[in-house]
Amino acid sequence: MDSYSLIYFEKPKGVISNWEYFWYQIPYGAPGILTFVVGLFLSYFAFQKFRKSKEDNRYFHLNLTISFISFGCVGLVLTTRAWIQDVETLVLWNDLLYFLVAPLAPTAFYLAYHMTGKQSKLLLYYSYVCWFASFVLYLGVILGKGFETTVFEFPFGKYPRGSAFVRPWGILAPLGYFLLILPSFIKHYQYIRKHYHLTLFHGVNLLFLLTTLNAPSILGFKVYPGGFFLFIPMLLVAYGVFRSDFFDVNELLFQKNGMFYFLFALLSFVLIFISFGVSFGLSPNAYESAKWYPWGIPPVISVFGAVFLSIIVAGANPSARINQLCAFALILTGFYVIQSVPLKLNISYVVQLRISQMTFVAFAFAPSIMVRLVFEAIGQKSPVWLQGIDFLCITAAILAPSPYLFVGYFDYPWSRVHHGGPAELLVGANGAIALVLVLFTFIRNKGYINFASKWIIGSFLLSALLLLAALLPSHGIPIYPIADFQFIPAFLLGYAVLRHGALSLEGRTIQLSQRLANLGLITMAIAAILYFPLIREQYGVGESAFHLTMIVLPLVLFNYLVVYIMSRPLAEELDISYFLLDLEKQKADEEREKALIAQDKAEEAREESEKLLLNILPYKVAQELKTKGSVNPVRFENATVLFTDFKGFTKVAEGMDEQSLIEELDACFTQFDEIILRNNLEKLKTIGDSYMCAGGLPVENRTSAIDACLAALEIQSFMNQLKEIKSALNLPFWELRLGIHTGPVVAGVVGRFKFAYDIWGDTVNTASRMESGGETGKINVSKDTYELVKYFFETEYRGKIHGKNKGDLDMYFVHRLRPRYSQDPDGKAPNQYFREVYARISRGANIRWKKES
């Protein structure tokens, strides 16, 4: 086997071009970009909170919005100092960006003033002083005297000195923090702890401390500025402010499609960067003595194939967690393979190195995302050991821009390959650990994993093996990196997830998106055809085709991406418009039908009498009575009976007049009627303050126990809300006991002049015992009902009760829907997945339940 010598990476001495300087300095400025992005992201949510907040909090959220923007721009300013070599250009950008940085001090002091309960007036007055200093800074920038061209030069960048217009602003913020904010926070610590989450307290303090750590570099000391890492305290502040509102991570990422938009924003930047980078950054020399053919073809297919699949999978159902995790995994796979393409070209090694480092920052999280995807696919909660994988991922991502990722390269016949350092070995070891643990989980649960989930796990295992094989050439073993063929597991993964989850897009949405995407595709194809002869003069035929592919394909994918983002809301609005038109048409038909009915009084009278009959009897029973003149008793083997009873009804009723009592009781029972109607139950009768209904009759079904539990959750929720309202008004209130039992009953119609549909049997007695043996505000069910609903609802065994002629009966409390079936945090309303399983049970399917994790 041939051996290849290791070539170490060294920075050249002497003067280098601005372009080379940028590539050498990328790791130093990268944290500032992250701070800037986090600042923009959080300012958007703070602004949304500002729009919805009450008058007392509007100034707080407005200052929070401006503060996030300002602190984010601090990161951008520091990045310009790391990346820009030309001093005049650097000073210009610092002058411009300080227009956005200047509000940092006054808004931060106002936030601190608000956190102390507006008790420290000095903080408010000091914020006014900082605003004055900010306007002085603005004046200096406008006059062109903001920053001087004299700079301090460090390995991590060039730092211009601030003029007399800027220095007061730079001194006031740290001075005010130590003299005013810190003492005020200590004095009012108990108030802050009582009214705010401690992460907000720590975040504000850390914001000032890290900003203060910019001072040594500005004063000429070789200390890396703490402002690069302001994204950490900004996230703490955001969590402290938003944690009890809409800033729930699961809701933000999935229900509000936050992950969908974040992934596509990230993809948009990467695709545009690739297209413009190839167009303006690659010269014909890049293809001379290079290995772009045929070695560059597999990674190009892998990159763009993974990105295309991520767009399709994520766009298919943005709110589905499994779709978003799959899209994320595909993107991270694409990120890894991106770095393989430049290694096939004849370009500066520093460019190849920096691209690889940037991609590894994202790719380091691949084990964490893939493991989550696997456990989501098999319907289990994330295991505890995943926290260890997460920690290793974060560590690897932090080390990726450092010299510890790669220490040089080998020059193989197919391409250059980076020589892996400790950070690359950490990524590989983390992936291997995740591979082994997922394989162990698969073997332990393979009997309960469906076909599509096995495909997902298989694609993960194949991808991990290909990636681990890439460690061999990175440590001197001359084997072609088969990780370039990641498009194979990527296509398997995309197919498996699309097979696993439902496509939520309506037909009109798909049609509109596809037509818009095709229009953009045709436009770019024409542009590519026109552009091809121009580059053909500089490149050979193969090089021209490869070059054009690298320019056009990212734009094609960007076109699809934008279409999915922009057309989806538009298409949904169109669907709503069509739906409203259908409703209007239905209303017109109803009006026409009413007019016809009005012309035929006899028909109207007949329909009214039939309607009255249906109010007394179920439809099927009423039809039988009309047809035969009588109703035969019917036995139902699996009916579910629900009883309710008000605790303390007599005591509360004694303090009410007759009219109020009847109105109150009627209001409650009317609400109960609407709830059971929505949940496919039949009202049977009321006896005083007791209410009785049943499911699974007069038409048998397989969901009566589930229907009764859903109705019970709604009834108890309604009674709890009523209790809160009554308590707030200091009015007496009723509390409800509710019992449910499932079993055989006989149903029929009794009476000749006043019909009544009723049921008989021991099941009725047992349901009544469940109610009387329950607790107020709780749903008490029998063991028979529990066995039918336990996979859908969170339950609690609560003991036994003696049943006449039945011995001791087991009882259970039903608390809420399980989280995987619920669309709300309280577990009251079922989600789409619940409805899909429910529909399958209704149609007669036998569900094979997975073991609970």
TrEMBL record:
Coiled-coil residue windows: 580-615
A Pfam family assignment: Guanylate_cyc
Superkingdom in the source lineage: Bacteria
Name this polypeptide is given: Adenylate/guanylate cyclase domain-containing protein
Primary location: membrane
Compartments where located: Membrane
Lineage per the UniProt record: Bacteria, Pseudomonadati, Spirochaetota, Spirochaetia, Leptospirales
Alphabetical keyword list: Coiled coil, Lyase, Membrane, Nucleotide-binding, Transmembrane, Transmembrane helix
Span of domain Guanylate cyclase: 640-771
Segments crossing the lipid bilayer: 28-47, 59-84, 96-113, 125-144, 164-186, 198-221, 227-246, 258-280, 292-313, 325-343, 355-375, 384-405, 425-443, 455-472, 478-496, 516-534, 546-566
PANTHER family tied to this protein: GUANYLATE CYCLASE, GUANYLYL CYCLASE
Family: Belongs to the adenylyl cyclase class-4/guanylyl cyclase family.
